[in-house]
Structures are given as C-alpha cells and as structure tokens.
C-alpha cells in the first residue's frame, strides 16, 4: 500500500495529523510506502515562504485582518474561486509526483492540496481514491469538493453542517482527528510527576504549539500571581526567544516551574497535568481530549480557532481566560468545584476520538480495495 499525504505547514497541526496517521499505517503495514509532502514547499520554496511567513506575520501582528479575511472567505464565493484558481495553477508538479509515487490513496490534511487533487480528478482523470481530514472543529467552504471519496471530521455537528452545504452524507465520517499512538498510552499522574521531577500538586501545562504562538509570556506571569499551591509546566516549542524569557522570569517565581523548548514529551506532560492552557489549535486540543485534560483557552487566532474555542466552551470542557483574568478565581470555579472539574474531564473523554487513527486506516483499506475492484466511477462534478 502506497499512501501519499499532502499537507501544508501553516502552523504544525496539519502536518502532525498526517504524521499521526502515517504511524498507524506503518505499524500495520511496515513494508508500505508512505510520503508526507509539505505541498507549497515541494512545489516552490518561494511560494511556501511567502504564504507561510505572510500567514505567521499576519496572525502575530494583525490577527484581526486574518479574522476578517477568514470570515469573508466563508461567505464571498469569489474568494473561494480565487483559492481554487491559485491551487489549480500549482497542480502540474503534484501531478508528476503522483505519477511517480503511484499512491494507492491520497490523504489531504489541508484544503489547498485538496483543491489540487479535486482539480486533477476532474480535468486529468486522476483515479486515486482520496481522503480529506478536516483539521478543525469547524467547517469551511475551502474544503467543499464533491469528487473526494471521504471526509474525516471531528464531530457530528460538523457533519450536519457539511451535509447542509451539499456534501453527501455517505462520504462524511465522524472519526475525529488522528492523534499519534503515543498519546493513547497513559501513566498515573503521580508517576508522571515523579519521572519529571515535579511535585505532586495542582499542575498546569502552558503551551502554544510547536511555534510557541500566543500570549504565553503574560499568561505565565498571571499564573505566577496565584495564591495557592501550584506548579507550572511551560512549553515554548521552537520559539527559542520565548524560552529564554520564560527561563528568566521563572527564576523569581515562588512556585515550582519547569520550562521546555521543543519536546517529544508532550504525552507525559499531559499525564502530569490537571489543566492545559493553550490556544485552541485542533490537534493540540484533540490530544488533550484523549488525555481527558480540561482546557483553559488563550489567544485563539481569529477565524477557525475562535470557532474551535466556541465549540469547546459550549461543550463544557474548556474555559476562556483573558489577559486580565484572575487565575485564582478561575481555578476556584473550575477546580475547587469538584463536580465541575469532574464534568469537564468526562466531557473531554466523550469528545475524544482515541480510535480515530485505526478507524481511518480501516476506511483507507476499504477505499483501496474498492478501487482495485473497479467500484469507483469517478463521475463527480467539482463545486
């Protein structure tokens, strides 16, 4: 089985979804060929730099502009057409890659490469079954392609929304985002804290994804003002400047603090924690849900992350905190209230999809087998 993953590194979540599913494929099919492609970087490094750096600068310095563009793209069809047109212009190199790699199936974890695959199916008779993994807790028109065999979404409400938008129900699967196998293994909280040389007390895990994005520093300071026994685990990711600032601040903090840069120990850090404090990126949240870890949400990127936040808060497993929020008051409401905290953990468990990777792999097997039997006619029309 040859599996081609097409993604884009706008943040780390899209690539991480591909990497997580890749691990399940390789575990079951060790002789399989798998390839994860950062699509824009593969097609043209300059385009990748312009798009990715532009995106990161906008969300960092003028996030309200990104939010406005996101909301416009949901309702103004010309923006969707422009996105499709841009993607279509970039298809030739991906087409050559597909002809060379000869995938049994294509998995897209970002809508831009998905648009390319839909274009190749319509205009170049591409007959490879394809799956889209919607990497947020919200739907968006950029994902709408009716010549894609399957959509993986995180929740039934997204499925209902997609059906209303014209995607046929039999192609939408509420399997959830795939999380890496290491997140499916847990150890007792006390053991995790001992292995990390932490105290056995109320613990919060503060992180901003692999890029260390969000108001991490001010949130760090806010937790330092707590008048209770608490310890902080902070993960700066690849943001080395942030790590240096946190290390400097931590020296004067009255409570135990553990600072990490980029680390592969996130599963254990989650096991050791009572809360995760993070921006609501869908992959980080999906991993926390599997760990039944309630979330305190900070710094959502306007657009999809604001929608993710709304979903999590409305579901009851998260609380939004702001720059001037009194952390002691929040913890009094959601941690000291044992019934509330228990419910947040239970809701997290109910929203989690620990079997997502295995379920998606089973679907891949079925689609590949059906295609080999000639059961697909590939007669879809593009939106």
Automatic annotation (TrEMBL):
Keywords for this protein: Glycosyltransferase, Transferase
Record localization: Membrane
BP term (GO), one: glycolipid biosynthetic process
Gene3D superfamilies: Glycogen Phosphorylase B (3.40.50.2000)
The Diacylglycerol glucosyltransferase N-terminal domain, residue ranges: 14-179
UniProt keyword Glycosyltransferase, yes or no: yes
Entry GO terms, CC: membrane
Record GO terms (molecular function): hexosyltransferase activity
Top-rank lineage group of the source organism: Bacteria
InterPro entries: Diacylglyc_glucosyltr_N, Glyco_trans_28_C, Glycosyltransf_28_UgtP
Residue stretches making up the Glycosyl transferase family 28 C-terminal domain: 203-347
Family membership: Belongs to the glycosyltransferase 28 family.
Name of the molecule in the record: Monogalactosyldiacylglycerol synthase
